Every structure is written in C-alpha cells, then in structure tokens.
Amino acid sequence: TCSNINVKINVLLTHILGLFLIHVLFLICIQAHPDTEVHTISLYNGLKSLMPLWVQVQNFRKAIEEIMNQSPEGVHLLCFSQGGVICRAVLSTSPNHNVHTFIALSSPLAGQYGETDYLMKAFPNCLKELVYLVCYHGMGPEISICDYWNDPHHRADYLRGNTFLPLINGEKPHKLMKDWRENFLRIKKMVLIGGPDDGVITPWQSSHYGFYDASEDVVEMRNQEFYKRDTFGLRTLDARGDVSMCVQSGVEHTKWHSNITVFNNCIKKWLI
Ligand SMILES: *[C@@H]1O[C@H](CO)[C@@H](O)[C@H](O)[C@H]1NC(C)=O
C-alpha cells in the first residue's frame, strides 16, 4: 500500500559533475507514496562529487544515520549513479543500520571502465587504457572516479592501487571483511536497476554486478568471483531471494531518476 507512514525513503543522489534534476524523483516518490516521508541528502554536488569516496562515505553515513535514528522502524535507501557505490559502502560500514530496501539506480557497483563525458572532464586527453596509471599509481585516492575505476587489463594494479572498490566488494581480503559482510546483510532487499542505453556506466551491466573479463567480455553477476566466493554477502542475499534486477532499455544515464516508467516498473513496488 501507499499509506505506510512508518517507512521513510532516503533518496541519495550524487553524481559525477552532476547538475541534474534531483528533485524529480523526490516528487515522484511523494506522489506515489503521499504518506511516506522522503528525504533527499544533498552533499557533494557538482565538482565536489569528485571528492574521494571514503571522505564522501563518511559524511553521507552521518547524514543517513541521523535519518535512521529518527526512523526506528527502518528506511529505504534509493541511490543514483555514484551514489549507489557510496550507499554500498555506507551499508557495509554501518553496524546498526536499519535499511530495509537498498535500491541502486544505474550505479557502477562492479566498477567502471569506459570513456564518458565525465571521465573526459576529469581526465582531459586521457585514454581509458591509460587511466589506470593515474588512478592506481598517481592521484588515485584524490578523485572519486578512481575509487571505482576497474581496468580489466590491469587486475593486479587494481587490487593493489585501488583502495575503495576492491575492499567494498571483498576482492582484496581485509580484517573487517566479515563485519562488513554482516552489516551489508542487514538489508532485506537489494534492487538493481540499469540498462543497455545508459551511455555512461560501462559496461552497463555493472549496475547489476556484471563486469568485463580480461577480453572485455561481460561476465554476469553470478559468475563473478566476488559472487562465487560470497566475499561481501551478495550470494547469500541472492540465495535468500532478495536480489531483484530490473533492466530497462531506452534510458540514458541522466534520465533514470526522472523517468516515470522506470519508477513504476522498477521502484514503486519496493517503497512500501
Ligand atoms: C523511459 O523509460 C522507458 C523504459 O522504462 C523507455 O522506454 C523510455 O524511452 C524512457 N524515456 C525517456 C525519456 O528516457
């Protein structure tokens, strides 16, 4: 029903150089669920979205915690693009979170390897084949894109030089892995949304935890090592029946959060 006033929805929209209509989704949510509280968290907008992700995660966690504390009955977390990667990190690093449904709207959850306008703005004259040199050996920790830059041709460098995604996805073992996995698995449901006409998330299947192998063929979620080894809880969540995938064609990256069809097909039913 649309009348559960006890559930709050957090809409976390952050985006690389994002200048988007973040309030569209906010308005759609309110319209669909008039008695539900909807919060948007507006941090790190515009160029600030390029700040290192661990810094952003820390501050988003604070903002989300505040809302969670006012909502003992639980919240949903709806996160767009880079925001989805941030939310994933917040979930793993928040021991007592009460997030029921985590919705990732076109987020590079398994990483990004592709030339996009955003990339070109961040690294002018930089070919995607060379970005790893910058990201894994140079200014990596200084810029958000590097935190989920996943070059399939430089796997060892990625594991060594990327201090964000390989930890979040448990590809690189670390001391807190077991805790992070437990924290993440407190969610009741994960909803993954993306599609082939996105144009920014590359490969677009990264929104569904698929990613390139060394030949740049896409390996789907269930054949990924992090899935098979259940490094962060994904296989457990899937075995529980709590991973829902929604693929929508004909949606460009900047249109996901203003498209009413996407909302009706992929999001609405989970905000109860
Ligand atoms: C909205 O989404 C639907 C699929 O859900 C797609 O067919 C349509 O092209 C999209 N419209 C826009 C303007 O993005």
TrEMBL record:
Superkingdom to which the source organism belongs: Eukaryota
Record localization: Lysosome
Entry's EC annotation: 3.1.2.2
Assigned keywords, A-Z: Glycoprotein, Hydrolase, Lysosome, Membrane, Signal, Transmembrane, Transmembrane helix
Pfam families: Palm_thioest
Keyword Transmembrane helix among record annotations: yes
Annotated GO MF terms: palmitoyl hydrolase activity; thiolester hydrolase activity
Catalytic activity: S-hexadecanoyl-N-acetylcysteamine + H2O = N-acetylcysteamine + hexadecanoate + H(+)
InterPro entries on file: AB_hydrolase_fold
Protein family: Belongs to the palmitoyl-protein thioesterase family.
Function: Catalyzes the cleavage of thioester bonds from S-palmitoyl-CoA or S-palmitoyl-N-acetylcysteamine (unbranched structures) but does not have activity against palmitoylcysteine or palmitoylated proteins, branched structures or bulky head groups. Conversely, hydrolyzes both long and short chain fatty acyl-CoA substrate.
Identification of the protein by name: palmitoyl-CoA hydrolase
Organism: Fundulus heteroclitus (Killifish)
